[in-house]
Design goal:
Blueprint: E1 2-7, H1 13-21, E2 37-42, H2 46-55, E3 59-61, E4 64-69, H3 79-86, E5 93-100, H4 109-140, H5 148-162, H6 174-180, E6 191-197, H7 209-212, E7 220-225, H8 227-234, H9 238-248, H10 254-266, E8 268-273, E9 278-285, H11 290-297, H12 299-303, E10 305-311, H13 313-319, H14 322-327, E11 332-334, E12 345-350
Parallel strand pairs: 1-4, 1-5, 3-9, 5-6, 6-7
Antiparallel strand pairs: 2-4, 8-9, 10-11, 10-12
C-alpha cells in the first residue's frame, strides 16, 4: 500500500513524514525541494508476532506501507505543481497535511484544504478535457466506436469538477472505477486529512466545524497528530517512546493510529500464510474472494486454484496448532467464492 503525503509549504508535511516513518528527512524547506522523500515501514501486527512464536519460521514478513512525501504544493496550477502531482499518481490514498499550529501566522485550515483540493481538481480537469477532445476527433473520423461508456463516465467526472467537487465525491460504481483506472485521477483517490496540531492541542478534539465536516464526505477520513512531538518520539528507543507517550496521555504512536485509519479508509484486511519456512501477512480488500486472495500471493495460484484450507486466527490460537484445528473441524476447506475474513490463516491448493 502506498500513501502520498501532500500539503502547502510549511504545513509540517515532512515533519509528519519523519514522525510516521522514523526517517530524518530535512524539514523547514517549504517548497524548495522537488525530490520526494520515500520510506517503507512495516505494519505492526501483534498477530504476526504470536504466529511467529507458534511456528518458529525461518522468515517473517510483515505487510508494509510506503509513504511518499512530495514537495509543497502552492494551491496554483503551475508546471512545477504538475510534476509534484505526477509523483502521487500511483498511490492508493492521499494524506493531506493541514496546518493547525501557529507559526507566526494563525492557521486557516478551511482555506488550505480548498487550495490543495483545487490544485488536484485542476490537474484532473486537464487530463479529462484532453481525453474528451481526443475522443471527439476520433468520432469525427469514424474511430469513436466502443468509446461511449468511457465518454459518459468522463463527462460525469468533468461535471463534478466544474461544480468544484473532487471526483471521490461521486462514489462511482465498480465498472466506472475500472474505466477511470488508467487515468490515475488524483482527486478520485481516498483522502486522509491529517490535522497537524501544536502541542497545546495534544489529546484535545478539534472543534472547527469546517474541518470536522470533512470526515462525513465520501472516501475521506480525518486524522489528528502533533507532528513535532511525534517526530521526537519516533527518534527514541521503544522503552523511552512508551514512557513519553504515557506522559503525554497518548495510548499509541501516530503510525499505529494512522495505519488503522488508512486500513479503514481503504477497506483493507490482512490474511496470513504460516509454516516452518515463513509466516507472512497479506493485505487485501474486504469482501475479497478466496480465489482472488490467492492471486495476491501469485497469479499461478489464482489460475490453478482448487481449494483453500482456512482457519480463523482466534480459532488457531485456542487450538494451539493446525493439526488440533483440523481435529476439531475448525480447519476447513473453502471454494473460490469464500469471502476472506480479517485474520484468516490460509493455505491454497492449486494445480497449474
Amino acid at each position: 500500500m502506498k500513501i502520498g503525503i501532500i500539503g502547502l509549504p510549511y504545513s509540517g508535511k515532512t515533519t509528519v513524514f519523519n514522525a510516521l516513518t522514523g526517517a530524518s528527512a530535512k524539514v523547514g524547506g517549504g517548497a524548495a525541494d522537488a525530490k520526494p522523500n520515500i520510506s517503507v515501514v512495516k505494519v505492526p501486527d501483534e498477530r504476526i508476532d504470536i504466529l511467529t512464536k507458534m511456528f518458529n519460521p525461518k522468515k517473517v514478513v510483515y505487510a508494509d506501507l510506503t509513504f511518499i512525501d512530495v514537495a509543497g504544493l502552492t494551491g496554483e496550477a503551475t508546471e512545477r505543481g504538475k510534476d509534484i502531482i505526477q509523483s502521487i499518481k500511483t498511490v492508493d490514498a492521499i494524506a493531506h497535511v493541514v496546518r493547525l499550529f501557529d507559526n507566526g501566522k494563525p492557521p486557516s485550515p478551511k482555506a488550505d484544504i480548498q487550495n490543495i483540493d483545487s490544485e488536484l481538481m485542476l490537474s484532473d480537469f486537464a487530463v479529462i478535457e484532453g481525453r474528451l477532445e481526443r475522443m471527439e476527433k476520433q468520432t469525427k473520423i469514424g474511430k469513436g466506436k466502443g468509446l461511449e461508456e468511457e465518454k459518459k463516465v468522463l463527462e460525469k467526472c468533468k461535471a463534478c469538477l466544474e461544480s468544484e467537487k473532487p471526483i471521490r465525491a461521486l462514489q462511482l460504481s465498480e465498472e466506472e472505477t475500472k474505466i477511470l483506472r488508467g487515468f490515475q485521477l488524483v482527486s478520485s483517490k481516498p483522502m486522509l486529512m491529517i490535522l497537524n496540531t501544536g502541542e497545546d492541542l495534544i489529546g484535545k478534539e478539534i472543534q472547527d466545524p469546517d474541518v470536522k465536516n470533512y470526515s462525513n464526505q465520501p472516501d475521506t477520513a480525518v486524522f489528528q497528530i502533533c507532528g513535532k512531538i511525534e517526530m521526537e518520539i519516533s527518534q527514541l528507543d521503544e522503552k523511552e517512546a512508551v514512557l513519553f507517550l504515557k506522559e503525554l496521555g497518548i495510548n499509541e504512536s501516530g503510525l499505529n493510529r494512522l495505519i488503522r485509519a488508512s486500513y479503514a479508509l481503504l477497506g483493507l484486511i490482512s490474511f496470513f500464510t504460516v509454516g516452518e519456512d515463513e509466516v507472512r501477512a497479506w493485505t487485501i480488500r474486504k469482501e475479497t474472494k478466496a480465489v482472488n486472495a490467492a492471486g495476491a500471493i501469485h497469479s499461478d495460484i489464482e489460475k490453478g486454484f482448487i481449494r483453500a484450507e482456512v482457519i480463523g486466527y482466534e480459532d488457531l490460537i485456542k487450538c494451539g496448532s493446525l493439526s488440533e484445528g483440523r481435529n476439531k473441524g475448525l480447519l476447513r476447506l473453502e471454494g473460490k467464492e469464500y469471502e476472506v475474513k480479517d485474520g484468516d490463516i490460509m493455505n491454497f491448493r492449486f494445480n497449474v
